[in-house]
Write a structure and sequence with these properties.
It is built from 8 helices and 12 strands. By secondary structure, the protein is an alpha/beta fold.
Length: 290
Amino acid sequence: MKPVFFSLAALGLIFASPALADGDASWSAPHEPYRIVDNIWYVGTEGVGVYLITTDEGHFLVDAATEEGAAVVEDNIKKLGFDLKDIKYIVETHAHYDHVGGLAKLKADTGAELVASVADRSALEAGNHEGDNTNGPATFPAVKVDRIVGEGGTITLADTTLMARMTPGHTKGATTWTLTALDSGQPRRVAFASSVTVAGNVLVDNVAYPHIVRDYRITFDRLDTIPVDIFLPSHPVFADLEAKYQKQKTIKYPEDKAQPFVDPTEFPKFVAQSRADFEAELARQEAAKK
């Protein structure tokens, strides 16, 4: 299946439009859960990616959707036959309400430890994103971080290890998580990627986040070094997951080897487009300041 690429700047309008300051309705709307590959499952809402990674010694959950979407996530996990109490770790990709608004509920209902970067910790525990942003404040239920992780830090359950890659810019502590999963016995490199759009961030004279431009560029350089076979973003539209899911329903997985979620060319294209969109937005903001 040929991947579809949109301008990330265009998609970023979802986050930047004042008319949608309270979010896109799809961020909390139900979506059926499904298996992506091996022990990785989509349990998110229609518009926000949340991923369950299962092992024999307990499970990981990547992100939590909105405060309202948390119920969708919990229902999806149960529909797949998994027990909420078997979730041992919840990790977050970035401290924006559409991805962490449900953390407090999910943490309370699962008893899991919340793992986050040091740079996102204060935002999570205050219940508000940090840095100057044209969207204004977007609060969410505050939640205590149990464990801090840095660049290259790992968390392991059974034979599954999640690695944290610091990819700041979208938020100060944005984190992309990677692991190797098996796809019918074939190892696949998986990335649960944080958003990297500008999304209303002030790039010029950002008093609350003065090194934001440097961080974005560090992130793009770092992402360029990460090989990815399966790209799982914080918003499914960034990797056209819905089309892949619909395609997967037409095959018999895992017997059929034509796995639609596997495409090692997709992530580098996403990073290149994201970098170009960032530089274009930076130039626009710089010109507006003159």
